[in-house]
Amino acid sequence: MASFIGLSASQSQFLYRCSLPIFSPAFISSSFHLKKQAPVRRLLVLPIKCSSSGPSQDTESEAETTSVPSSSSFSSSLASSNSTYNWRAGIGAVGIIETAYLTYLKLSGSDAFCPLGGGSCGDVLNSDYAFIFGVSLPLLGLIAYGFVTTLSLQLSAKNLPFGINETTGRLLLLGSTTSMATASAYFLYILSTKFAGTSCSYCLVSALLSFSLFFISLKDVGLQEVQKVVGLQVCIASLVFATLSTSYSNLPSAPSSQANIDLPYFTTEITKESSPFALSLARHLHSIGAKMYGAFWCSHCLEQKEMFGREAAKLLDYIECFPDGYKTGTKMIKACADANLEGFPTWVINGQVLSGEMELEKLAEVSGFQFNE
């Protein structure tokens, strides 16, 4: 009987490199007695299969090495997607704040505080172009910004409603921002043609936000996906354009005449009687050189004077920025221009600038006034 060879683990790891037959030690010993007797023992060849333990480890190692960059690439892609979602949510939140403020003004019937440009900002916001089929434009903007912000947050949290997957969510954002960008482009056209020579900071900010959301969504979806839905985007843009054109087709041509405003200077009588506190405060403000900048057509300026009352208002150092009336293209006087006003009324007290109507108590606090009855 031939004896078998026992292979150790270390030997088996080495043997994967060769496939040679292994000779039995019994046969080797029998060769020394070859001349004395015929060999009875036979050559035992053990077919040893090559062990694959070595290369399999290398293969697994290579697989692990390959999987690491793949996992890293996926994590990087996921982080990039979350970043764009967060950017859209942040920009949308700014749009919500702006449109919520304008919606509140519409519902309350108040005038917006207008930065540089004076009353022209109010002319745009209070015109017929601020409505679409009778619905307030800021309210529609609030809904649009709210939808984009909410959907972006849900995509970032991977918690989409109604079984919507991420790809569908991105396409919904692209469609929404496409309609918003189209509307903003249309309104910029209206602003430049129907309200030539006027300024509307709120309109420009809203357009900037809408275009930013659109380009972020465009980049997020990718060129290949955009090419697949470009027809749908064109349809959405065309529908928005047709809706706005239909809504404004029957408007009177009056807004275009606002480009040629000719408003002569006028004064408004203050009817309220001044209180002792208002009189003392007005004297104090005059003594420290506090100035109030305003415009004759500014309703907020009139309300500020009414707070002081008839007698106290005459004691204020009030600077009229349009003493010769207002016409299209008319600039403020040098004193107002040098003060870098952002709107009316504006107070400058001890070097501190206060924009908008101020309560008398606030003016007293800023100016260091203490009323002694």
Automatic annotation (TrEMBL):
One function term, GO molecular function aspect: quinone binding
Stretch list, region Disordered: 52-78
Biased composition (Low complexity): 64-78
Signal peptide extent: none
Membrane-protein topology: Multi-pass membrane protein
Keywords: Disulfide bond, Membrane, Oxidoreductase, Quinone, Redox-active center, Transmembrane, Transmembrane helix
Coiled-coil residue spans: none
Gene3D superfamilies on file: Glutaredoxin, VKOR domain
SMART domains linked: VKc
TM spans (from-to): 129-151, 171-189, 195-218, 230-248
SUPFAM superfamilies, per database record: Thioredoxin-like
Domain Vitamin K epoxide reductase: 81-221
Location of this chain's protein in the cell: Membrane
Main localization (coarse): membrane
GO CC annotations, alphabetized: membrane
Membership in a protein family: Belongs to the VKOR family.
Protein name: Vitamin K epoxide reductase domain-containing protein
